[in-house]
Design goal:
Blueprint (H helix, E strand, L loop, with lengths): L1 H12 L7 E8 L2 E6 L4 H18 L4 H17 L6 H31 L5 H10 L2 H15 L5 H8 L8 H20 L5 H15 L9 H13 L2 H6 L6 E4 L5 E10 L5 E7 L11 E8 L3 E7 L4 E6 L5 E5 L12 E5 L2 E6 L2 E8 L4 E7 L13 E4 L11
Antiparallel strand pairs: 1-2, 3-14, 4-5, 5-9, 5-13, 6-7, 7-8, 8-9, 10-11, 11-12, 12-13
């Protein structure tokens, strides 16, 4: 500190005594560092260079001091000295870039350390996002993610980056989006294959696009989110679609639907679920939405039949037959699903049972049951379900 004050004292004594002063933030332990406005640009640059030398000597890990110098250098270049203005301009911009690289390194290292230690990153993320310009924020995020990429499970890392968003804070919302984008495109660049990560990333993108703040995000950032969404496996986009989907059995392309009038004489007020015999047919009775119930290494889902908001459940007393729960809360033992996918098909499981199209119930309907012995990948085509867009029209009365 004494060395820094001595350097600054000598520089200020050489400046024009009668001039105004411009404060250089931050205040170094109570001492205000000033630049004389009347000094020429070369003198001001010399002050900046000397301050940078003193910081490197005695405060190399002090993020606030480095950030303060970077901010004032940026203002100086923007207002007084263009990079093309001769040797002094070139030198000023070279100094700014050197300070920027060090500031990026300090911020990225701190963020990476918090992520690796599984500590909260929310408050530090707010500090980064609110104190530097967006381009540097993106740079910090990119380097932090590069540092932790091989040290954290990717599916877990996606969930950690969600913590950057602070409720109702637009800056942190955009920063969280930038972090997820940076992580995903690094995954793509590494040519990795991780189904759990893709599930969690698809979930993160769905939450971003349906968030009330998303409409206020600038169009360039929205386009980048759309590019990420388009790059994900389409089957995951269908699974997380906010309007829901219908399901066709890959085996016979019959669609799964919840009956409207066919009660299940069961204490939980069930409604029966079948597939309809007509191939590739859908209607509103088949509309389903998937909700993340638990966020583990991969999401655990509930599935809701949207016509009357009934959750799908499995009845062990009926041969593990699928039904829709008319009332009551979904149970973790009968209504929680793990989901995987094969190409364009989804696979729904509970424990060691897999959801499959089963035997005929009558000439028009087929039973849906949870069957054992389908844990291999892929299971039989009767246990693979194609998510498709539902037709909104009723062409028949479901029974």
């Amino acid at each position: 500190m004494h060395r820094l004050l001595l350097v600054l004292g000598l520089l200020m004594a050489a400046a024009v005594a009668a001039a105004e002063v411009l404060p250089l933030e931050p205040d170094l332990e109570g001492y205000q560092v000033v630049l004389r406005r009347a000094a020429n640009r070369s003198d001001k640059l010399q002050v900046f260079q000397s301050i940078w030398g003193a910081i490197r000597s005695d405060f190399i890990d002090d993020t606030d001091k480095v950030k303060g110098l970077y901010t004032q250098l940026s203002n100086f270049i923007r207002n007084e000295m263009q990079c093309t203005s001769g040797p002094t301009g070139h030198s000023a911009c070279e100094l700014q870039q050197e300070v920027r690289r060090h500031l990026r390194s300090l911020m990225a290292q701190r963020l990476a350390n918090l992520i690796n230690a599984e500590e909260s990153i929310q408050s530090y993320g707010m500090y980064v996002g609110s104190s530097i310009e967006p381009s540097l924020v993106r740079d910090v995020l990119g380097h932090a993610i590069e540092d932790v990429y091989f040290h954290r499970p990717l599916e877990k890392l996606t969930q950690q980056l969600d913590q950057l968003y602070t409720d109702r804070d637009e800056v942190s919302f955009k920063m969280m989006i930038e972090a997820q984008l940076s992580l995903y495109w690094r995954y793509q660049a590494m040519h990795d294959s991780n189904e759990a990560f893709l599930f969690n990333m698809a979930h993160a993108v769905s939450k971003i696009q349906t968030h009330h703040m998303y409409a206020s995000v600038d169009t360039s950032l929205q386009r980048r989110v759309e590019a990420l969404h388009s790059s994900l496996p389409p089957v995951l986009g269908s699974l997380f679609h906010p309007q829901g989907f219908c399901l066709l059995s890959r085996d016979n392309r019959e669609y799964l639907y919840t009956t409207i009038t066919d009660d299940w004489n069961y204490g939980l007020n069930g409604r029966k679920v079948f597939t309809w015999h007509k191939q590739n047919y859908t209607d509103s009775a088949g509309l389903i939405r998937a909700f993340v119930q638990e966020q583990l290494s991969t999401p655990v889902f509930t599935l809701r039949s949207e016509l009357f908001k009934w959750y799908l459940f499995v009845d062990p007393s009926e041969g593990n037959r699928l039904g829709a729960l008319r009332s009551g809360s979904p149970s973790s033992s009968t209504s929680f699903w793990t989901i995987t996918y094969v190409q364009d098909a989804l696979i729904f499981r509970q424990r060691d049972l897999t959801l499959c199209a089963a035997e005929r119930f009558d000439q028009e309907r087929r039973l849906i049951k949870m069957l054992p012995g389908q844990m291999h990948t892929p299971p039989s085509e009767a246990c693979q379900w194609l998510p498709v867009v539902c037709s909104p029209q009723y062409e028949r009365d479901a029974t």
